[in-house]
Request: fold
Amino acid sequence: MSRTHAVLRCMGQILGALVVVGGILRFVYDKRVGCLLIALAICIAGPIEDMLTAYVQKEGKDDDERRALGHFVDLSTSIGFLICLGLAVWSM
Reply:
């Protein structure tokens, strides 16, 4: 099962990177702001959330605090993700 998880994680990272690069390129060449916002949303929900979660897991004093901080990061990054996607839809 761990090999399946590793393969799925790798696929997700590759696909996410392709969408982010594609979004940035579409913005640079076609000035499509929506594409840039989608790329930003993926960065927020992916690597930024992972970094913040790892940080709060180290900084929490006990399991309850780490769980609460992790939940706060999850909710906050979800809001950032949805704001970016909403702005992307609005800009199209």
